[in-house]
Amino acid sequence: MWRDGASQRCLRLVREMAIAPGAPVLDFGSGIGGPARDIQAATGAYVVGINLSRQQLQTSLALSRLQQPNAPLFADLVNADGQSLPFRAQTFAHVYSINMFYHIPAPQQALSEIARVLRPGGRFGLDDWFLTARTAAATVQQLRTNWSSSQGFHQLDDMRQWLEQHGLAIVGELDFTDEAGQFLREERFGAVFDRQVRARLIEVFPQLYQYDGYVLEHAALAAEQLRNDILYMGQLYRSGEAVYKQLIAEKRR
Ligand SMILES: C[S@@+](CC[C@H](N)C(=O)[O-])C[C@H]1O[C@@H](n2cnc3c(N)ncnc32)[C@H](O)[C@@H]1O
Predict the structure, then answer these.
(1) Ligand 1 — pocket residues by CB below 6 A?
(2) Fold of 2-132+149-177+240-251
(3) Given a cut of 90, is residue 217 above it in pLDDT?
(4) pLDDT at 213
(5) Beta strand pairing call for 24-28 and 118-131
(6) Beta partners for 242?
(7) Model pTM?
(8) pLDDT exceeds 60 at position 24
């Protein structure tokens, strides 16, 4: 399962980062806390999450209280834009970002902030998908439509250069493109989606998007669209127009 795969991927990343118990670690774009749950359980780190969406932080807190009432998941949760971090220089032993950097409109600004808050010798673990030299202009256009974004999406080669330019030396690189391409097929992801996900999304979408005139057919269309957009990513991984990577970079001393 991709969920289990995602969990294994996060654990792989933290292993490469060598996070020690109790280390202050920043989860850059923590969402509703899925990766942080796995990472905190595996390392015992002191995880601080930042996220642009206040609503997702609230969900994160609620899930954390529900699942771990005695040991709260996050040491702190901060509603902030990753391009301007509200922390002092060298606050964190490590920073990681899981499946979110493609959202960032000004990646160099975000990397300069990450380098600022990292301690020398600390590691930045970046888990994300990237465009490649083979990505067609029409594909980028389609991705912008699919994910409703006029900014973001980065080339792997650019990212490697930007990391180095910000004093973050790449010390490791893992590739998950084949795995993602194999899973994101009609007969695997499509089948799991139809069996386990579609009905639930149709139920929750109207609760999430409460505006006049939102009807069940809209939710059915939105679920179908999401399914297609994710399967489209699978095509790109198989054709070499996108790659899924983990880059591990160390702040120079
Ligand atoms: C696909 S989700 C991934 C969340 C989480 N890392 C995970 O893997 O479950 C992307 C997250 O990035 C957040 N995000 C997007 N742009 C951001 C920004 N500029 N600063 C901070 N968070 C941002 C979104 O709110 C969303 O929670």
Answers:
(1) 29-31, 34-35, 50-53, 56, 81-83, 98-100, 103-104
(2) Rossmann fold (3.40.50)
(3) no
(4) 66
(5) unpaired
(6) 131
(7) 0.93
(8) yes
